[in-house]
Amino acid sequence: MHRLEKLGIKLPAVAAPVASYVPAVRVGNQVWTSGQLPFVDGKLPAVGKVGEKITVEKAAEYAQIAVMNALAAVHALVGIEKVTRVLKVTGYVASAEGFINQPAVINGASNIIGEIFGDAGAHARSAVGVAELPLGSPVEVEVVVEIAD
Asked: Torsion angle, CA of 96/97/100/101, rounded to 10 degrees?
């Protein structure tokens, strides 16, 4: 039984791409995901900038949703049970002028990865503030994982 099942977490369906790309690609023993938005049933739960319209707490929830969408893309490509290590998480935060708490937002993604993968979830990370994200999303998350052959 995968740790997801033990935690009672169900991966969402893979979010449909909104442009010309695929949700994830495998290169050797790694899977790289495209940037994932926090789609829930094909819709964004909110739009706007963090530190203006969106609170840090809500944005962290959206980062968690986005990373679950990334894991769904990994699962659809190779199976989540093949993940041996989470290598890198990159989180983008649509930031209001003067907003500097991007790391707290992307903790929403990192914390759930830690819960799901335990020690294998310890990862390198970037939390980047940007002016705008696709479709007005407050966050976008990418993941790179190592997989077993």
From this structure: -10
Are 134 and 47 spatial neighbours (Cβ–Cβ below 8 Å)? Answer: no
Domain encompassing residue 124: 1-147
CATH code assigned at 29: 3.30.1330.40
Structural domain count of the chain: 1
The structure's pTM equals 0.96
Question: Residues near 93 by Cβ (< 8 Å), separated by ≥ 6?
Answer: 50, 59, 99, 102, 105, 106, 127, 128, 129, 130, 138, 139
For residue 107, the tally of other CB atoms under 10 A from its CB is 19
SS3 83: strand
Task: Give backbone dihedrals phi and psi of 93, rounded to 5 degrees, phi first.
Answer: -125, 120
Question: pLDDT tens digit string along 46-78?
Answer: 999 999 999 999 999 999 999 999 999 999 999
Segments of the chain with pLDDT less than 70: 1
Q: Which residues contact 114 (CB under 8 A, 6 or more apart)?
A: 121, 122
Q: Which pLDDT score is estimated for 5?
A: 84
DSSP bridge pairs for 140: 92
Two structure tokens written together for 98:
């003067």
